[in-house]
Prior knowledge:
There is one protein chain. The protein is mostly beta strands and 176 residues long. It folds into 2 domains: 9-71, no CATH class; 83-173. It is built from 1 helix and 10 strands; from the N terminus they run βββαβββββββ. The chain has one helix spanning 83-95, and strands at residues 21-27, 37-42, 46-53, 101-103, 110-114, 124-129, 135-138, 149-156, 159-161, 167-173. The strands form 3 sheets. Strands 4, 5, 7, 8 and 9 form a 5-stranded antiparallel β-sheet that branches. The chain has a 3-stranded antiparallel β-sheet with strand order 1-3-2, with no helix packed on it. The longest helix has 13 residues, at 83-95. It is elongated.
Amino acid sequence: MLEAARESDFVFDLETDGRLQFSFCVTPWQHVPLVNHGAIRFHNLFALVVEIGEPAIELPRELAQHVTTCAVKEGFSTPLLDEPTAFARFHQQINQTQSLILYSPNARGEYRIVCAVPMRIPPALEIRFVDKSYTAEPLPPPPKRGTVELRFRVKGKGGYLRQEVPIEFLALHAEL
């Protein structure tokens, strides 16, 4: 056992006379490689997988006692998803829904809405509160996400409210 290891640490006990290759991969959370591996899984999101095995390439003799690193030079030539779609799908995945998501206000009293799908143009927000004296004041859209995320604050008689208030009606309007 390593001297610096804590009891809560997970330690791989590997016995080998040769070189080992460690490949670090981000995968779908349920992916199980067919090789020796360790994984940190973030339920319903992704996994950080460490695959352990024999080297895939033969190294020159002069590098035999060195640690070597390799990295992919290029990723996908074009992104698999545009940023607004990826943003919406991420929030749907962590909230286990395919619908619009309304987040409670943060410490500054800002509500956040994540649309079910990106809109062609930023949608207009129509909202009514149970207390008719409250009004919603839209905030500037976040850069690159204005077609999928809206933010607003609730204004009452004494100024902006930081606590959650009951909403009677909420709709998003976007021209197609």
